[in-house]
Amino acid sequence: MMRKWLSLVLVLVLAGAFVTAWWLRPQHPSLPPGGDFTLQSAQGPISLHDFAGQVVLLYFGYTSCPDVCPTNLAQLASAIRDLRPEERRRVRVLFVSVDPQRDTPKKLAGYAHFFGPDFLGITGTPAAVAKVAQAYGVSYRKVDYPGALGYLMDHSTLTYVIGPGGRLRQTLPHAAPTSDILAAVRHWLTAEGSS
Questions:
Q1: Averaged pLDDT in 10-residue chunks for the chain of 195 residues
Q2: Which residues 6+ apart lie within 8 Å of 38 measured at CB?
Q3: Domains of the chain listed by start with CATH number
């Protein structure tokens, strides 16, 4: 009789442990839909599909950002410098300005190029930028700020990794370590090949 009770208790403990482990499992929210878009660069319209066969690192920010954007873009630049030349040819960083009021395509070109030749600054009308931001789950808003700038832009800080096939594949947190960026780029270059 005692053996039956011990067996029952053991089953209940194991079942409880399983339910607890399932309940506490890490949650991985699904990615936003992403998708193709067209915005303006200093050279004219740029579409995501223009980079088919490449890994695109997509980041939303603005040129007057005091700290978050430069930090993240510097990390991306560091990772890209560590790529082998044949890998580097197949990677592009698109910097989408969420501040089209101040960030003209010409201003964005100079800002993006500061981080490297693989960086391209793009923006559009407020409605066009909002549409792209919504597709990628990006939030941003204007915040009044005393001083010469007049306002700042609060914005999401993820980097969106788009595979060579044009699909959003993963996100990287703000200022992700260079090793994580390299791993993501190399994974998707290999996983999707040149498709």
A1: 51 37 44 96 97 97 95 97 96 98 96 96 98 97 86 96 96 96 96 63
A2: 45, 46, 47, 48, 124, 128
A3: 38-192 (3.40.30.10)
